[in-house]
Design brief:
Structural class: mainly alpha
Distance between the termini: 43 Å
Number of domains: 1
CATH topology: DNA polymerase, domain 1
Shape: globular
Largest sheet: none
CATH superfamily: 5' to 3' exonuclease, C-terminal subdomain
CATH architecture: Orthogonal Bundle
CATH class: Mainly Alpha
Number of strands: 0
Order of helices and strands: HHHHHH
Number of helices: 6
């Protein structure tokens, strides 16, 4: 049962999204890490490489995949997250 709560998704469920860092939210999107790096560690490497969440959007999948632990699937997850974000913003702007 502890494993269920002792990770970013558990924190999200226990405390709410406002209590999660960008690293933790990205780790939730990634869902899993690798043998070498946890999902949180991969998320931190991504944030470090691009200087924060706001600077990740618009980069090519191949640029995201330069980070150890990010392959095609995780790069696609990040790109899909940003595409959804753009669509929500566009929708809100037209209301």
């Amino acid at each position: 049962m502890d494993e269920y709560y002792n990770h970013p998704g558990g924190k999200f469920r226990r405390m709410g999204p406002e209590h999660c860092s960008e690293r933790e939210l990205l780790a939730i999107i990634f869902n899993t890490g690798t043998k070498k790096h946890s999902a949180e560690a991969i998320a931190q490497m991504l944030l470090d490489k691009f200087g924060g969440l706001n600077n990740i959007m618009g980069h090519k999948l191949s640029e995201l995949m330069e980070i150890e632990g990010i392959g095609a699937v995780k790069a696609t997850q990040v790109a899909a997250f940003f595409e959804l974000t753009k669509r929500v913003i566009r929708h809100l702007e037209t209301e």
